[in-house]
């Protein structure tokens, strides 16, 4: 590769939250994949998803590692000023978890069925935390609770807590459980304050995780930079999954003070799919956190974006039915992704829709979003 003139690189400011699934952005910058496409990624560690949202909206960030559901919440003006957004690619799949307190586990509540029995037999004010009202963790937490007959908004309080504060909140008894990304589920186990009740891949196998997001205005004004960002991250994602050694190196980098600033082992174990639920269960997860999968992970499927809208409608966050397909076509910039995929030799799926069967046995394929949103026994919308 020819020597690159650093002064000619286009600086791109990208925000991230200290979570394991920011790995492909971190390694794109650390390993120099960005410079191969004429950009220099400057990463900014953020303290909350609300902060990420506000900085994207104001232009303080060009792009961000961001919750899929948050992007659609802003696109639809849920709890904030409406702003047109752009999902450039999916950064990850799987690798989140619902954690219950050690106190609940000691009383026999270690999974969905036992939690439901416990809450019926010992009624009190239960509190479960997610990371953002319209985000992935809120929607996955609500879905899991409801699948076991627990109304997340009537039988409990739902609280918003930044990911890095989840373990401390659990230790202090402020919450009974939480849904968040790694390494915080593993940290709760390591610190002796929580147990893993369910992984997110058990709720929705191969579910979408965080995305590389920006505003529609930025995507419209600088599509070349957007394609360069996607291409750099595709290369980094491929590199992470190329070997166990690369995953181990990624864990070491992520553990540093500039990124997650936490114990390396808490990151490494679940990054390579080694799970311990804190109550005797240990397994190697075939659907652990993924970053590339020959591009299957990264493609911005329209049906994925539509699912979040169905759940936002289900829980009353959307008062009216949105144009599910139209909104997904506007937000998920498949055109930009295809350009970057061609640049990197990444395979592109034949269809922008995909099918999944979730924990309650219901199939989601995007064909009837309105009917799907209205089909649930437990709902508010």
Automatic annotation (TrEMBL):
Q: GO cellular-component terms in the record? A: endomembrane system
* Entry keyword annotation includes Cell membrane: yes
Top-level division of the source organism's lineage: Bacteria
CDD domains in the cross-refs? PBP2_NrtA_CpmA_like
Q: Which UniProt keywords apply?
A: Cell inner membrane, Cell membrane, Membrane, Signal, Transport
Q: Where in the cell is it found?
A: Endomembrane system
Work out whether the entry's keyword set contains Membrane: yes
Q: Which SUPFAM superfamilies match?
A: Periplasmic binding protein-like II
Q: What is this protein called?
A: Nitrate transporter
Q: From which organism does this entry originate?
A: Massilia violaceinigra
């Amino acid at each position: 590769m020819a020597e690159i003139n650093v002064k000619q690189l286009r600086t791109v400011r990208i925000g991230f939250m200290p979570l394991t699934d920011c790995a492909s952005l971190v390694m794109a910058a650390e390993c120099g994949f960005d410079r191969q496409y004429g950009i220099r990624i400057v990463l900014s560690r953020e303290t909350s998803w609300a902060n990420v949202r506000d900085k994207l909206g104001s232009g303080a960030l060009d792009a961000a590692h961001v919750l899929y559901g948050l992007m659609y919440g802003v696109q639809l003006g849920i709890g904030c000023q409406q702003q047109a957004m752009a999902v450039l690619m999916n950064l990850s799949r799987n690798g989140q978890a619902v954690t219950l307190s050690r106190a609940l586990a000691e009383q026999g509540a270690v999974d969905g069925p036992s939690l439901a029995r416990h809450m019926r037999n010992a009624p009190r004010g239960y509190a479960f935390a997610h990371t953002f009202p319209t985000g992935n963790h809120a929607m996955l937490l609500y879905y899991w609770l409801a699948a076991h007959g627990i109304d997340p908004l009537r039988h409990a309080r739902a609280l918003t807590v930044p990911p890095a504060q989840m373990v401390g909140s659990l230790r202090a008894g402020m919450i009974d459980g939480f849904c968040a990304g790694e390494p915080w589920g593993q940290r709760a186990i390591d610190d002796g304050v929580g147990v893993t009740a369910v992984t997110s891949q058990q709720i929705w196998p191969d579910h979408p995780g965080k995305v590389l997001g920006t505003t529609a205005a930025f995507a419209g004004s600088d599509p070349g930079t957007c394609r360069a960002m996607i291409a750099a991250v595709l290369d980094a994602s491929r590199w992470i999954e190329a070997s166990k050694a690369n995953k181990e190196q990624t864990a070491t980098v992520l553990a540093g003070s500039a990124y997650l600033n936490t114990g390396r082992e808490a990151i490494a174990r679940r990054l390579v799919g080694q799970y311990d639920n804190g109550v005797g269960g240990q397994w190697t997860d075939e659907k652990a956190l993924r970053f590339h999968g020959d591009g299957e992970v990264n493609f911005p499927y329209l049906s994925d974006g539509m699912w979040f809208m169905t759940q936002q409608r289900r829980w009353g966050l959307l008062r009216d039915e949105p144009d599910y397909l139209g909104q997904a076509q506007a937000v998920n910039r498949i055109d930009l992704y295809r350009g970057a995929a061609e640049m990197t030799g990444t395979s592109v799926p034949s269809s922008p829709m995909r099918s999944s069967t979730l924990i309650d046995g219901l199939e989601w394929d995007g064909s009837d979003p309105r009917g799907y949103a209205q089909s649930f026994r437990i709902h508010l919308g």
